Amino acid sequence: MAYSQTATKIIDNIWNNELSFSEKALQLFAFQYHHVPVYQQWCQHLQITVADVTHWHQIPFLPIQFFKTHQVLVKDGSVEEIFTSSGTTGVTTSSHYVHSLQLYQQSFLHHFTQQYGDPTQYCIVGLLPNYLERTGSSLVYMVQHLIEQSQHADSGFYLHNFDALAALLQKNEAANVPTILFGVTFALLEFAAAFPMTLKNTIVIETGGMKGRGKELTKMELYQTLQTGLGLANVGSEYGMTELLSQAYATANGIFSQNNLLQVLLREEDDPLQIHSTGRGLLNLVDLANVFSCSFIATDDVAHILPNGDFEILGRRDNSDLRGCSLLVV
């Protein structure tokens, strides 16, 4: 790739704490405007050029639906992996053509260690049945890598073998082994109902995903049900998606923190170019790790950004397709 030297510099700058988030985002915008054909066409449709943008709030956001219809990738870029979203029958799924898995690994390890510390401190367990039963899940890829990083003999995935998972968690509780359980929402609810217990040394991180299974719960009902069933003080959450290479974490009540790789804004539904940094609206994401795809994505998630910059996901826009990792209703 003729632009590889520029891309290398941009990747180096992602981790440069002396540069502001806006400076990093503007560098990425200029790079992707010139080298990601689909994104350039979108910007030209909006009649916005690199010269028109002086702050990251002014950068155009690509509608997330383009990941269902186009290859969102740098021109002539090689592909190491294609991550795909889960979906219900008849729904077109998204495809994320990943040029650099190393960049994805750097990103999710960075986010995890920022929030929870060194993965070697934990036994890491994944309860992700519907994701494990298909190919192309970026979530499974991430958790698999964290499992390998943990180096704990009992780290691993569980499908529907709740008996074995319950025995492992109880063994770790008795031995005071710090444990992290990543779980898809419906499976966590089923597990908590079948094997109520008290977890004091285990962090439970729900990753979303009711997918039409059982009664839809509000977020507060979900957290209260899991807290009661598993004896938890708090339930953690992970916010990510197929189209991203970065994640946000919430330690309690679904309140996510922005970070140095992932920042969020809001747009008005009836005027997508009206951008706000607080309040309620449709969520726009800037993912600095998404160097070779598109870092600026207009999602169909409805969100609330608090005055301190933390945010919560309230649901999905009514007329958007239902993703397999569908969010809970409010």
Give an overview in words.
The protein is of the alpha/beta class and 330 residues long. The protein has a single domain, classed as 3-Layer(aba) Sandwich (Rossmann fold), CATH 3.40.50.12780. The chain is built from 10 helices and 14 strands. It has helices at residues 4-14, 21-35, 37-45, 66-69, 101-116, 129-132, 138-150, 162-174, 185-194, 219-230, and strands at 62-63, 81-84, 95-98, 123-127, 156-158, 179-183, 202-206, 236-239, 248-250, 262-268, 271-276, 279-287, 296-305, 311-316. Strands 1, 10, 11, 12, 13 and 14 form a 6-stranded mixed β-sheet that branches. Strands 5-4-6-7-8-9 form a 6-stranded mixed β-sheet, sandwiched between helices. Helix 1 runs antiparallel to helix 2. The longest helix is centred in the N-terminal third of the chain and has 16 residues, at 101-116. Mean pLDDT is 92; it is low at 321-330.
